[in-house]
Amino acid sequence: MQLDDVRHEYGRGRETVAAVGPVDLRVPAGEFLVLVGASGCGKSTLLRLIAGFEQPTHGSVRVSGAPPRPGTSAGVVFQTPRLFPWRTVRGNLDLALRYAGVPRARWPERRAELLARVGLEGTERRHVWEISGGQQQRVALARALAAENPLLLLDEPFAALDALTRERLQDDVREVAAQTGRTTVFVTHSADEAVFLGSRIVVLTRSPGTVALDLPIGLPRGGGVDADQLRESAEFNALRTEVAHAVKSAAAA
Ligand SMILES: Nc1ncnc2c1ncn2[C@@H]1O[C@H](COP(=O)(O)OP(=O)(O)OP(=O)(O)O)[C@@H](O)[C@H]1O
After folding, report:
1. Are residues 62 and 171 both part of a single domain?
2. Which residues form a coiled coil (predicted)?
3. Which end of the chain is more exposed for a tag (fewer CB within 10 A), N or C?
């Protein structure tokens, strides 16, 4: 994924709001990029540009060498799950599989695989209103993984969840990203969440957001990592302090 001199403005004339940019980013395949910054700095705007939901007013966004196609280039998870509440877990997943063009004969196998991946085995027949907020967000994650597209985009997906559920979902997203090797862009306010999840953190200045800090994170990833031990390590805590300071000074600059 590649962003070249990307800028985005909303509105026109005297009402113009410069939301983001200029931003240049090269994100190699398999990277877990976390965008962090104060409220209103343009994180969601950048994510929408990468998803192809909006066209940048200036510059270019490329995913696998081409402009992003909304709904095709990336799976997206939003802050709220945005599921169909009257459908079952299975019904919601089937819609995603149909939309992704997966042949119907493969749905049962693919459905089971996705549910196992997000820790939701055995919930297929439950309605969305019968499962918890954390489980709903797991369904939204499974739905975003249904299409085997190269990119996974998550916009503050755990902001509305309690601390413990949030940690368990962070553990799972870290694991899913390591297993699937998918390029991931994750938006958050939280330095803690950023350091735990990211293989790279980009801190944005206040609006219009530009890159204030671009930091590779060398914490261990992949199978066998004990998430709680990682959160308690001196290295994790030093990085968390560094990122929290960077976010604060970028917001004040
Ligand atoms: N649809 C829109 N129309 C006009 N202005 C917008 C629109 N969406 C966002 N903005 C403005 O663009 C700027 C960046 O907003 P954006 O939502 O991208 O920031 P953010 O960093 O994701 O914020 P938050 O963390 O609070 O969600 C803000 O000044 C915001 O008011």
Report:
1. yes
2. none
3. C
Same domain, 122 and 153: no
The per-residue pLDDT for range 34-50, each reduced to its tens digit, is 999 988 899 999 999 99
Residue 156 falls within a domain, yes or no?
yes
Parent domain of 95? 84-148
**Ligand 1 contact via 40 beta carbon (within 6 Å):** yes
- Pocket-testing residue among 20, 43, 46, 154, ligand 1, by greatest number of atoms within 8 A of Cβ: 43
Compute, in angstroms, the gap from residue 135 CA to the centroid of ligand 1. 28
Checking ipTM against 0.90, whether it exceeds it is: yes
Q: Residue 227: which CATH number?
A: 3.40.50.300
Q: Which of 55, 79, 207, 211 to mutate to test the pocket of ligand 1 (most atoms within 8 A of CB)?
A: 207
